[in-house]
Specification:
Pfam families: mTERF. This is Putative transcription regulator mTERF family. GO terms for molecular function: nucleic acid binding. 66% of the residues lie in helices and 0% in strands. It is mostly helical. The chain has a domain of 80 residues. It is elongated.
Length: 295
C-alpha cells in the first residue's frame, strides 16, 4: 500500500483533500502529484494556506510557468518552505540585477535549488568572490558554474585543492586559469585527476602539466573510454614518425567526436599501422603495440 494512506491516519483528512485540490492547479502538477506524494508523503503534512500556496505563488512568478514549478516540486519538495523560497526569490533578484541570463537563472533555481536557497548574505558573499575572480554574470557562460563550485567549497577545501594541483605541477596562476575555463573540474577527486595527469603527462608525454590548465575540460573526460584510446593512437603515430607534435592540438583531439577522430587519426594511417583500430577500440594494449611496431 502506498505510504500516503498510512500517513493519512495521522493527519486531518480535510487538509489532505485541500492539498489534493492544490496539486491540480495545472495539468503539469496533476501529472506529478501521485508519484510525488507516494514517495514523499510528508508533503501532506504541510499547511496549504501558510506554506504550499505562498511557495507556489513566489516560485510560479520567478520560474514563469507551472511546468517549471512542477519540476521544482518533484525534485525539491523539501525546500517548499516560505523561508527557503523567500531566499530563492531574493537571490534570483541579485542575479537579475547583475544581468545574468534568465535561462541560467531559471535552470539553477529549478535544478540547483540548494544553491539558490542560501541565506542572502552568504549568497552575496559567494557572488562577490566569483566576480573577484574575473567572472561576469552578464557575459561569462561559466559564471553560474563558478558560483556553484564556490558555494560548495569552503576556504580550507579550496586551499587543499590548490595545494594538490601544485603538487601536480601547476602554479597558482595555472590553477586560477583552469578554474576560469571550467570551474567544474574542481569537483573531480584527487585520485581521478592524478591518474589522468600521470597517464597524459608521464606515460604518454604528450603535454606538460601547465598545458592542461588551458583546457581543463580534458580532465573531466573518461580515462578509460576517451583519454587512453586517443592518447594511445597519437603515441603510436608519433613513434612511427607518421605525425609530428605540431600536427595536432591535444585539446582538439580529445573533444573530437569519434567519427572525426577516426577520420583524422586512424583511417588515413591504417595501411602503415593496421593495429590502430584495435588500439582505439581498446582491444590491444599500448605496451604490446610499442614492442611490435616501435621504429
Amino acid at each position: 500500500m502506498c505510504k500516503v494512506w498510512r500517513t493519512l491516519k495521522f493527519m486531518e483528512v480535510r487538509n489532505a483533500l485541500t492539498i489534493g485540490r492544490w496539486l491540480k492547479l495545472s495539468t503539469e502538477l496533476k501529472s506529478y502529484s501521485y508519484s510525488v506524494l507516494c514517495s514523499n508523503p510528508s508533503v501532506l503534512k504541510r499547511n496549504v494556506d501558510r506554506s504550499l500556496s505562498p511557495c507556489y505563488e513566489i516560485l510560479r512568478s520567478l520560474l514563469g510557468s507551472d511546468i517549471k514549478f512542477a519540476g521544482f516540486f518533484k525534485n525539491s519538495y523539501q525546500l517548499l518552505t516560505v523561508k527557503s523560497v523567500s531566499n530563492i526569490a531574493r537571490n534570483v533578484s541579485v542575479l537579475r540585477e547583475l544581468k545574468a541570463p534568465e535561462s541560467l537563472i531559471s535552470y539553477y533555481a529549478t535544478c540547483q535549488p540548494l544553491l539558490m536557497s542560501l541565506e542572502n548574505e552568504k549568497f552575496h558573499q559567494n557572488v562577490n568572490k566569483v566576480m573577484s575572480l574575473g567572472f561576469r554574470p552578464s557575459t561569462s557562460t561559466t559564471f553560474m558554474k563558478a558560483l556553484f563550485v564556490i558555494s560548495t567549497t569552503d576556504s580550507s577545501k579550496w586551499a587543499q585543492k590548490m595545494d594538490f594541483y601544485k603538487k601536480c605541477g601547476w602554479t597558482e596562476d595555472d590553477f586560477l586559469l583552469a578554474f576560469s575555463k571550467n570551474p567544474l573540474f574542481m569537483n573531480m577527486t584527487e585520485k581521478n585527476i592524478s591518474s589522468k595527469m600521470d597517464f597524459i603527462v608521464n606515460k604518454m608525454a604528450l603535454v606538460q602539466p601547465a598545458d592542461l590548465a588551458h583546457y581543463p575540460t580534458v580532465l573531466t573526460y573518461s580515462l578509460e573510454n576517451r583519454i587512453i584510446p586517443r592518447a594511445s593512437v597519437i603515441r603510436v603515430l608519433l613513434l612511427k614518425g607518421l605525425i609530428a607534435r605540431g600536427d595536432f592540438s591535444f585539446n582538439s583531439l580529445m573533444i573530437y567526436n569519434n567519427k572525426k577522430f577516426l577520420d583524422k587519426f586512424v583511417v588515413p594511417y591504417q595501411p602503415q599501422v593496421p593495429e590502430l583500430l584495435s588500439i582505439f577500440a581498446g582491444e590491444m594494449g599500448l605496451g604490446l603495440v610499442e614492442l611490435g611496431i616501435r621504429v
